[in-house]
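User: Hello, can you help with two protein structures?

Assistant: Certainly.
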Amino acid sequence: QVQLVESGGGLVQPGGSLRLSCAASGFPFSTYAMSWYRQAPGKQRELVASITRLGGSTNYADSVKGRFTISRDNAKNTVYLQMNSLKPEDTAGYYCNGRPAFGFPGFESWGQGTQVTVSS
């Protein structure tokens, strides 16, 4: 059974930092590209960052470039999102996404999300 479980969200002041984690199970983690999405109330879900299956390439939304870093540890079946210099507009539910890399079998999966609130 494929499972993605996020953790690390919470309330933080503007300028602060948080580190989100997404623990994966039930599938061969190293064959999946992983991403973080976020969704604020009344807005569409948007891609925040993605990382290829072996971590060789990353991609970021323009709004988080230079502030957020995605990484993964395939030995621990975990993907991370380090968020620095947080702004109120980063407030959203953050969701982990896994998608089979090209040429590998499997299904796209989502975590249940973790809430990040940036407020003074």
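That covers the first. Now for the second protein you mentioned:
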Amino acid sequence: QVQLVESGGGFVQPGGSLRLSCAASGTFFGINAMGWYRQTPGKQRELVATITSAGSTNYADSVKGRFTISRDNAKNTVYLQMNSLKPEDTAVYYCNVEFLDALMRKPFGSWGQGTQVTVSS
């Protein structure tokens, strides 16, 4: 069983910054990719950024140059530094982690509980 605990969401004015964290814990062999997604009411969840175990990153076009994803493998934690925030970044942000299970080392995914980010003046 694994757990993902997110933190760092909140309210910020346009142009401001926030840093999201997602810490993984539980029983697993390892972690492959980690990522952040976001969702607004009535819309599908969309990819924000991902990072592989080797550190390769991928970003949605809408956040390139403003958001930075990183991970601390020793802490099993993924971060999302969000700068120059815009009202259209308002959403619930979810982390997603691909684990390798402890017994068979098969990959499986898990979602965090979500954290609200609101950008408004």
